[in-house]
Amino acid sequence: MENAGSPRAGRRGPAGGPAPTVLGREAETADIMRRVAVGRTHSAVLVVEGEPGVGKSLLLDLAVRRTRDAGHLVLRAVGSESEAHLAFAGLHQLLRPVLADLDGLPPRQRSPLRIALGLTDPADHTELPDALLVGLAVLTLVSDLAEPAPLLVVVDDAQWIDRASLDVLSFVARRMDGEPVTLLMGARAAASLPGFDKGYERLEIGPLSGAAANRLLDEQPQPPTGRTRVRILQEAAGNPLALVELTRAFAAAGGQPEGSRVEGPLPVTDRLEAIFARHLRHLPDATRHALLLLAAADAPDAPVAARGLPEAADTRWLPAERAGLVRRHSTGITFRHPLVRSAVYHAAPFEERRQAHLTLARLLDEEPDRRAWHLAAATERPDEQVSKLLLETAGRARRRGGHAAAAAALERAAELSPRRADQARLLADAADLAVYTGQLGWVEHLADEVRRRGDDPALTSRATLAAGRLMTMGPHHTAAFALLSRIAEDAADARSPRLLDALAAAAVVRYYSGEESQRQRIEDLLSQVPDSPAGGALRAWTLAVSDPTGAGASLAPALPRLIAEAGDDAGALTALAIVAWLLDQTPLAARTFDEAFDRWQAHGPLPAGLACAAGWTFLEQGRWAEARSVAAEIAEVAARAGLDHAEACARALDATVLALLGEPAEARANAERALALVDPLESRSVAVCARRALGLAAVAEGDYDTAYAQFRAAFTEDGDPVHYHVSPTVLADLAAAAVRRGHHELAAEPLERSVRRLGTGTSARLSSLTERARALLAAPEHAERHYRAALADEAGEHWPFERAQTRLDYGEWLRRRRRIAEARPLLTAALDTFRRLGARPWIERAQAELRAAGIEPNGVTPRPLTELTPQQQQIVQLAAHGLTNREIGEKLYLSPRTVGSHLYRVFPKLGITARAQLRDVTGGGPVRSDAGVDSRRPTVPERTLRGSPLSP
Fold it and tell me: Which of 102, 559, 831, 884 is the most exposed place for a label (fewest CB within 10 A)?
């Protein structure tokens, strides 16, 4: 526990009474106590951070004590540096007191959680545990535990909690809205906490004030004075633990502790570890041996390790207790602070540490993963048997979904493998798994190690390709393309099958950057790939992604066959769905995405390559709630993994939907955030998507000057498309904004230049958009033929919003020429579509046009359902279909209580008082909502993130 002094005497009251405080931490104590108040009804997440020794643990202890004094449940875990590589170790520690409650979970949730916690052998199951279902199971469990009384969840030393457990905690934290659950996370300052880096309140525990530091010194058994006091205050720099321990050290040494004459101050942590280590020198051998065994053991090892340790009442512990190194409890012995454990462990010679780990390994014979790591810690030379045990550990971690733990085990197995060829192979396997952690530095290190230890070009290429794939999700696309093209060149020279893999990844970079020279380089290298049925999907992907209106356009007729040949291969189906989207085969793309998602197994926590393509597909089809769900899930995963580019792509998608729904402020915030996350010259696709969203937000507000400026930014000063795929979709909006400003000629040059670049490979969608743009810009006597051409192809119905825009423009044109009878059907059809989609700004414009055409559209208003958020629409649709709150929660990854809270809030908005009336609001039956949610299929969040490779 971190020591910041003791709670002040006389300040601790009964439950609900005055809370205890910590000397110098009155404000911080009050802040935390407010969040664990007995009568709390809402969720709270607080990250408590500070340097070692500032008192984080003591403040968390106070929160735990107050909650338990009130008779409420507390779940608590403490991170351990040596456990950071054990998948779900932190979660197991947290849930250990309530493991019996797992039996009350729905089977679909219970099974993945039991596998993740190691309570069920993953070999007994054919599927890997779905990470989202593990998170949902914990969310449901937490919600159930909070039903009788508020629940407190405390995670201390969170910087050492394993990544798999952190991901689950982050998942739960984002979905606790409405739950009486408080999550307190204690972590060292500047520590990386994936999933908690953004969006949560933080309480920084800084140094004590001078007055508080002096009061703390006065409370010590032997308060220092004079120059000694001045030096302690100076060197401790307000750190409470340093103040206490330096005072103890000075007192024990008669005012001049060993090492005090070292030139220059040591960092506080190093100094404290040195102080603790000095205490060890004066302890009996039996006490030091017991302390070392305790230090080498992890928290979950403690019950087993206790069999090799003296009992708490044993006199061997007394010298350590008197030295302030340990505390004795009824349940056993614990170190007074993590730095004590670190000092005890590192002060011991390697041979003594080795013997401690071997002792623990013998005691942990029934815990193969922990046993393997203790044996590894006891081994400094290659050992094939220990390497094999770590390889088995990696396999078990992989089957539980612990990719970081599996990669760490493979890396250590490589270090202990006696053969260089095996070392390189294991490191390449580790690199493949480390990709799923989003840690580029780690993957690059593993790839470097493969090159250093092996001479197999295939392994080197594979490991380097893993780093290249992860780089595509970062902001530096020029460097990513250089690396991937070099891999492709080497693969071409070696006639390696990695050539197509490298080009497929390079095509993603080409899409993001929009750099024309990259397209040419990809096509040159692709010509060296021999035709083969096995590579059909990847070849189609590469062509379509890098040049959808050129070489890729010829793929459209072959797509149905390629999709059929993909069979149950979810990865190939996803790639082909993206190809279909790029070629404007939107209905085929949507069907293939649905099919792929239904087959997808849990491979990792990262978004798939160009995963936002699914969201854009749903947006184009009018399934806007699903589009927003895709964006939300990808943004969460990307932010947690630190993948700025992937997050920017998702935010640009969400900004577009928000603008169409008539939420311009939110749209701008998301679009501007997207632009801030990327370099526009490195990520032209994101830049143009964000500019389009900003333009649509301006249109929603009737600000056509701003709209024109944003749409015009999708084209160069000369009028060429900034991005080969995204910019042409902006042409009609640019023309409409230019016309509203009265400057038809301003949009003419970008239109004609784009049409020339598109050539003959124009899709039905782009043809319709360009004809609409031409109609808007044409002289009155020529406009109608372009409007008719824009609406001629029935395939245009696949893009309902764009079709409705054209009908609205044409209807307005006809009305102004007093052809009222012809205008009315077009305007009515446009309004019906806008109403169905919930596109409020366009609803209002269509209503105004209908009034001008002599029709009063009083009854044609948005249905109340469109006033709800996308998540609320999904909940209403599923509830109308007869699903219970728990069943809805399973589909949407929410707790049953949160579902009920949403329904409680939406009933007044819908003008109903009973659940049975929901069918009247939605139209009844198993329907697809206005936002496109099909209650009979898995929802988008469930399906979208089951994949892994990369992201737009």
Answer: 884
